[in-house]
Amino acid sequence: MTYIKELRELVGTRPIIMAGACVVLIDEAGRLLLQQRTDNGFWGLPGGSMEPGEEMKEVARRELFEEIGLEAKELKLLDIFSGSELYYQYPHGDEVYNVVAAYVCKEFNGTIKGDEVEVRDIQFFELNKLPDQINPPDLPVVTRFLNEVRS
User: Fold this and answer.
1) Cα distance between residue 27 and residue 5, in whole Å
2) How confident is the model at residue 113, as a pLDDT?
3) Burial class (CB in 10 A: 0-12, 13-18, 19+), 38
4) CA dist 50 to 17, 77, 95, 110, Å?
5) Is the pLDDT confidence value at 146 over 90?
6) Contact, 81 vs 100, CB < 8 A?
7) How far apart are the first and last CA of the chain?
8) Integer Cα distance of 48 and 91 in angstroms
9) Average pLDDT of span 73-87
10) In this predicted model, what pLDDT tens digit does every residue of 11-21 receive, in sequence order?
11) What is the pLDDT of residues 25-43, one digit of tens each?
12) Antiparallel, parallel or unpaired: β 32-37 and 47-49
């Protein structure tokens, strides 16, 4: 996240528009992978911000590997999320309006190994037994995915 760090040195904590991607990873049993964040303790999707020159799929693949240790074989676009419900203020004060490309991944390789700085825990959850504390910017993505699965 070097680009955002450099930007923050210039603008401080004031709101910025942050483009990024996340991955809705589903295992062979139909369970959703969530990671418990170290910064706020909430459960969320693997994902993060775009670096200059990256394509959104590259962001999704990179973040999945960096945060979880898995390589996506195939990514299918769920939707692009933006707007006021994607506003977030980090515990340390930085404010963002996220623009997120959310991808669904059902085929992946690797061994789960969480990033020790960003990830406290990683678990697969049954879709009807998700934790209550979903990371606020991830909640619209998770909700949309669940609505599509149920329809």
Assistant:
1) 33
2) 93
3) middle
4) 11, 16, 16, 23
5) yes
6) yes
7) 36
8) 16
9) 97
10) 999 999 999 99
11) 999 999 999 999 999 999 9
12) unpaired
The closest of 136, 41, 49, 22 to 85, measured between CA atoms, is 136
Residue 113's CB: how many other CB atoms inside 10 A?
Answer: 13
| Rounded-to-integer distance, Cα 68 and Cα 75, Å | 16
Q: Judging by DSSP bridges, how do beta strands 95-110 and 16-25 pair with one another?
A: parallel
Please give the CATH architecture assigned to the domain spanning 2-150. Alpha-Beta Complex (3.90)
pTM above 0.90, yes or no: yes
Give the pLDDT score at 2. 85
Q: For residue 31, what is the DSSP state?
A: P
